[in-house]
Amino acid sequence: MSAIEANSLTKRFGSYTAVDQLSFQVDEGEIFGLLGPNGAGKTTTVRMLACVIAPSGGSGTVLGRDLLSGARDIRRSVGILTESPSLYERMNAVENLEFFGKAYGMTDSQELAIRIKEILESFQLWERRSERVSTFSKGMKQKLAIARAIVHNPQVLFLDEPTASLDPESSKLIRDLIESLGRSGMHTVLLCTHRLEDAEKLCSRVLIINRGRSKALGRIDELRSRIAGRARLEVSLKQATPAIVEGARLLQSVEDVEVTDYDTKLLVTAKAGADAQEVTPYVVRTLVEKGAMITGLKISLPSLEETYLKVMKEA
């Protein structure tokens, strides 16, 4: 079942079209990536789906509720992390979560207190609960901002650039938190980012947009194969003789063989429809029969970055 659906979703600001007829859906429990450069329309899309702003055209639903007629219910049912943490820095962590929990309609003080303790402990912030947020590091503020977004236990979570401006250690902490939310099966996450390493590690499917328009949509592995090329088998050996190279090229399941690194590495590309892992034993057997001394073996997949850059170049 779809938790989020967008059908020709459009947003105009005067004569400028920020989002142009985007259509996609996000399944329940999925971590879905919305990728694109700065100014591509990612944040505007998230704000429409979270009912912060109204669309100019098209339609959409979140948890089965219409973006226009069900806007109030949607706002209560989702959590949103904006590009800035939007925390009250003079308050401490508990006071921030109490404020936002009540704003989301959590009227039972005891239940809210239990929920706050649970979240702060899981986010490793409980020991700092009584300190002003102004004393927190960027990574701690970002963790608290995510805690604020899920304090009311929403089914759908919109995260807009959650690791922006963070150092590598803090970025990994935030990625681990998002991954744990996805694994729980209780949250559907729409991750809006231009950091491809985040999307590659967290998302099952992605939508790449540019200038408000859809450029590519699908599973990451499928997009890699279709846009950036198929997986290749990297074979390191003592020397790639002509007989060895020719033997690999004659295999029925092999489309191409490239020799690199001063004749010490073969890059073997399987034919369309053939799995690189399934082809590997036949390649190895053939190379050994031709006298090859294999020193290393690795299956190399095109990266999401290669895929993204190719999409942007074509766009």
Summarize the structure in words.
The chain is of the alpha/beta class. The protein folds into 2 domains: 2-225, P-loop containing nucleotide triphosphate hydrolases (Rossmann fold, 3-Layer(aba) Sandwich), CATH 3.40.50.300; 229-306, Alpha-Beta Plaits (2-Layer Sandwich), CATH 3.30.70.100. It has 11 helices and 14 strands. Strands 6-7-8-3-9-10 form a 6-stranded mixed sheet, with helices on both faces. A 4-stranded antiparallel sheet has the order 2-1-4-5, covered by helices on one side. Helix 8 (220-228) crosses helix 11. It starts with a strand and ends with a helix.
Compact description:
The chain is an alpha/beta fold.
Descriptors:
315 residues; Rossmann fold; Alpha-Beta Plaits; six-stranded mixed sheet; 14 strands; elongated
Question: What is the topology?
Answer:
Elements: E1 2-13, E2 16-27, E3 31-35, H1 42-49, E4 57-62, E5 65-66, H2 71-77, E6 78-81, H3 93-103, H4 109-122, H5 138-150, E7 156-160, H6 168-183, E8 188-193, H7 196-202, E9 205-210, E10 213-219, H8 220-228, E11 232-237, H9 242-249, E12 254-260, E13 265-270, H10 276-289, E14 294-300, H11 304-314
Parallel strand pairs: 3-8, 3-9, 6-7, 7-8
Antiparallel strand pairs: 1-2, 1-4, 4-5, 9-10, 11-13, 11-14, 12-13
* Annotated CATH topology of the largest domain: Rossmann fold
The CATH class assignment of the largest domain is: Alpha Beta
- Distance separating the two termini: 32 Å
Task: Give a count of the beta strands, DSSP E runs of length 2 or more.
Answer: 14
Radius of gyration, in angstroms, nearest whole number: 24 Å
Looking across the biggest beta sheet, what order are the strands in? 6-7-8-3-9-10
Mean pLDDT: 91
Q: Could you say what the CATH architecture of the largest domain is? A: 3-Layer(aba) Sandwich
Q: Supply the number of helical segments.
A: 11
Q: Say which CATH homologous superfamily of the largest domain is assigned.
A: P-loop containing nucleotide triphosphate hydrolases
Please describe the biggest sheet, giving its number of strands, its sense, and whether it closes into a barrel. Answer: 6 strands, mixed
> What is the 3D form?
elongated
The ordered string of helix (H) and strand (E) elements is EEEHEEHEHHHEHEHEEHEHEEHEH
Low-confidence stretches: none
Please, how many domains?
2
Taken as a percent bin, the fraction of beta residues is 25-35%
Which bin fits the share of residues in helices? 25-40%
Sheet/helix structural class: alpha/beta
